[in-house]
């Protein structure tokens, strides 16, 4: 791990991504605010969307709803409720990527809208379904919808791991949900931040403090962030939900299933059988 780089002055969030910036990036832990994180992650996902969809598209499926690398499927989990109750529901998917989950929701008779920061990720949705799922390019921290527009919201590793101010996203989700609405989101399990992000045995030894919230930042040789992830402890995540005004109903920690022999970055059968990799928060708006 590198030492933190020079202090970075964030560029405007609308600035176009530079396709060359992460060729020489180095990883570090340092502060990264809302604007810098959004700018870096928009650029990273635009540059890496094609490779990401090639690498993970088969596992994700074009119209499957998977909550994370363990492969927990909404068909069995029913965290958004029984499938038959999804008919006619307005659903917002946040950080939708290629909108695989939205496509599954549409197949159940729901009316999904897929939102993502990355234009290139959303283009993969168009490639798959030629525009069947409505798409919105926006930041999860400023949802471009009227109050009470949705019955349900969901996010499978979308936005929440990447934003500097997750409570702001949760307040926005609460605002656009109707009373009685539900929001379910998955993130990297907080305990994983104490271990190296490696699928093998080296990923089983604690090397960092679980309590160190300093963001993981990949930066170019001028200290500009080109990718950012934000760590929250389990308690932080619970607090974010509660202070946003949502009610926490459940925290699901999917166990690694025997059928899944596939590695996904630092997620592997070896580690998955020993430590949790994903945390799924089920929240409701009263
Ligand atoms: C790991 S992907 C998850 C997408 C999909 N569920 C999947 O499994 O492929 C994370 C997505 O979050 C999006 N994202 C990151 N930060 C965001 C933000 N602030 N607002 C909206 N989307 C964001 C990225 O562009 C990316 O498409």
TrEMBL record:
Occurrences of domain Methyltransferase type (ranges): 92-185
GO terms of biological process kind: methylation
UniProt region (Disordered), positions on chain: 1-42
InterPro entries xrefs: Methyltransf_11, SAM-dependent_MTases_sf
Keywords: Methyltransferase, Transferase
GO molecular function: methyltransferase activity
Protein name as catalogued: Methyltransferase domain-containing protein
């Amino acid at each position: 791990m590198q030492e933190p780089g020079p202090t970075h002055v964030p560029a405007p969030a609308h600035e176009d991504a530079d396709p060359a910036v992460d060729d020489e990036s180095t990883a570090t832990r340092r502060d990264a605010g809302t604007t810098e994180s959004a700018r870096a992650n928009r650029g990273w996902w635009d540059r890496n969307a094609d490779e990401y969809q090639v690498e993970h598209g088969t596992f994700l499926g074009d119209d499957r709803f998977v909550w994370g690398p363990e492969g927990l499927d909404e068909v069995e989990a029913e965290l958004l409720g029984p499938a038959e109750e999804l008919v006619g529901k307005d659903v917002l998917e946040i950080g939708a990527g290629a909108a695989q989950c939205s496509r599954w929701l549409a197949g159940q008779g729901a009316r999904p809208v897929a939102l993502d920061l990355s234009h290139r990720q959303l283009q993969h949705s168009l490639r798959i379904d030629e525009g069947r799922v409505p798409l919105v390019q926006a930041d999860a921290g400023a949802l471009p919808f009227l109050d009470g527009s949705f019955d349900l919201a969901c996010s499978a590793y979308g936005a929440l791991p990447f934003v500097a101010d997750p409570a702001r996203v949760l307040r926005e989700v609460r605002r656009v949900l109707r009373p009685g609405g539900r929001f379910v989101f998955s993130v990297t399990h907080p305990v994983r931040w104490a271990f190296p992000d490696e699928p093998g045995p080296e990923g089983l030894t604690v090397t960092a403090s679980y309590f160190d919230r300093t963001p993981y930042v990949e930066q170019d040789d001028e200290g500009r962030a080109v990718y950012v992830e934000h760590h929250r402890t389990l308690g932080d995540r619970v607090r974010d939900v509660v202070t946003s005004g949502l009610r926490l109903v459940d925290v699901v920690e999917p166990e690694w299933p025997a059928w899944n022999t596939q590695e996904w970055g630092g997620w592997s059968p070896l580690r998955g059988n020993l430590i949790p990799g994903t945390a799924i928060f089920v929240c409701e708006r009263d």
